[in-house]
Amino acid sequence: MTTTTTTTAFDLKAYLDDRRRQADEALARALPAVNGQDGDPGRLKEGMSYAVLQGGKRMRPMITIAACEAAGGSVAAALPASCALEMIHAYSLVHDDLPAMDNDLERRGRPTVHVAFGHAQAILIGDALLTRAFEVLGQGAAGIPGDRIAAAMTRLAHHAGIHGMVGGQALDIEHGQDIHALDLLERVHALKTGALYAAGGAMGALCGGGTEAQVRDLEAWGLKFGIAFQHADDILDDDQQALRAQALARVDQLVGECDALAAQFGARAEPLRALSKWVADRAHAAAAGVKAD
Fold first, then answer.
1. Residue 134: which residues within 8 A CB-CB, separation 6 or more?
2. Which end of the chain is more exposed for a tag (fewer CB within 10 A), N or C?
3. Count of CB atoms situated within 10 Å of the CB of 64
């Protein structure tokens, strides 16, 4: 008698829908209550919720959760780090949208924070999200040793600061949308975008109980994914047109490197592999003129 084995493809949409729901619920709990007993000075709490809970792909929390699961941990173990990372991302958008930076008036179909709350309050709302992120991460999840929480905080501070996202924003302001050298473009992408994904990979691995080597590998996975993600975004947005062909080729190379790093985790890394395939498909679809996100 012949036995037939059926292999079911990983359902990335179902995975992301479930993990996003859990991340959104955790974010709502982690943000300070607008109607709390201590009030809401200057509508800062309202502004924090406005900045964080107005949608988005939640890709940075998704990477943190997927890395935690790859290292053998649970979704619950990854949620404080996921919330902290999304708050850092949200604060950066609040500040980037300001007139002194990109001067954006709308984000995701709604007025940006400085339009809705005022310029001075937007600065303070960003500051409040930044500091709240470390408070939430420091509280951690049940059962995670303090030294791992401390290591996660150090990784996040490094990748969010001058050696990561903030430094990348400074480079982006300096060089703008007309970069003609791929190595410079990838330096900007690595710092401005890749750094927070690297933080997500490292923090996920730390919260999931990964070894030191696994933490480094998932940190590297996040960095490579983040660079590929930004190349795909550039193609979608028609940015950095001079390097379009080179960027598309680099997406394929970076995704291959991501998959090589994920191989050691076996079936637990299926979400990571699906995410890297998604970013490659997204880039190639955009290059072919398909702008669906």
1. 84, 153, 156, 157
2. N
3. 37
- CA dihedral sign, ordered 273, 279, 282, 288: negative
CA distance linking residue 252 with residue 283, whole number of Å: 9
Q: Across the strands, what pairs with 131? A: none
Give 234-257 pLDDT, tens digit per residue.
Answer: 898 888 878 889 999 999 999 999
pTM summary value: 0.94
pLDDT at 11: 96
Tokens of 184: 């410079």
Give the separation between CA 164 and CA 51, rounded to whole angstroms.
Answer: 22
DSSP H helical ranges for 210-269: 212-237, 244-262
The residue ranges of DSSP E strands in 109-193, in sequence order, are 110-111
In the predicted structure, residue 1 carries a pLDDT above the cut 50: no
In this structure, how many other beta carbons lie within 10 angstroms of the beta carbon of residue 171? 19
